[in-house]
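Example S7 (structure tokens).
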């Protein structure tokens, strides 16, 4: 997968013009890249959208007004589960033990890599000619993180890609994503995930959004 240096620096909250920060994320990427064992599961579902949430064709009900607004006009959606694998978590811990700076950079680099991987998966997805909405994940807006418990069995994440959910609703491996991606006839859709999130004060928010 592609390494987006700019994205890694944004996650690190570093000055894009700072040469030392650039060298740091490049160095850490070289140490992490061979540990990545990216895997994903992608399913297409029919969806029914109303004011209070979304119902999947398998009967699972997702309750969120923000998600419903985001999927308005969509009759189908993709469910995505993706992970960089457990070896990345081990490598991040190892780098953090050796250097605080490398540990922080490793978190940022890995965050950028899982997003790049999800973009790659979306780009290759068979949508039947429909346009994709931006990824929308539990925890965005008013979509309760508890609803990860609904997505994981549908995606069969543990069996198919080795992705588990802890009692505290943390994903293991940690550099992982679950999301729903609306499919619609409209062609002006964009993938910028910051457009799906109402937290305008987030330090990781992309410029211009």
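Recovered sequence:
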């Amino acid at each position: 997968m592609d390494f987006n240096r700019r994205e890694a620096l944004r996650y690190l909250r570093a000055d894009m013009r700072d040469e030392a920060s650039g060298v740091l994320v490049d160095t850490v990427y070289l140490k992490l890249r061979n540990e990545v064992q990216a895997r994903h599961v992608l399913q297409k579902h029919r969806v029914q959208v109303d004011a209070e949430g979304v119902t999947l064709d398998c009967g699972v009900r997702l309750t969120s007004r923000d998600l419903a607004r985001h999927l308005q006009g969509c009759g189908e959606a993709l469910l995505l589960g993706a992970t960089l694998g457990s070896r990345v978590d081990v490598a991040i811990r190892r780098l953090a033990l050796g250097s605080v700076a490398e540990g922080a950079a490793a978190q940022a680099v890995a965050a950028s890599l899982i997003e790049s991987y999800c973009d790659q998966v979306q780009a290759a997805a068979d949508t039947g000619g429909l346009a994709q909405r931006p990824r929308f994940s539990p925890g965005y807006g008013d979509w309760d993180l508890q609803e990860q418990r609904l997505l994981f069995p549908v995606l069969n994440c543990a069996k198919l890609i080795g992705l588990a959910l802890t009692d505290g609703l943390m994903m293991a491996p940690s550099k992982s994503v679950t999301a729903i991606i609306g499919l619609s006839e409209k062609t002006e859709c964009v993938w910028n995930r910051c457009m799906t999130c109402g937290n305008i004060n987030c330090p990781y928010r992309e410029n211009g959004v």
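Notes on this example. The longest helix spans residues 100-124.
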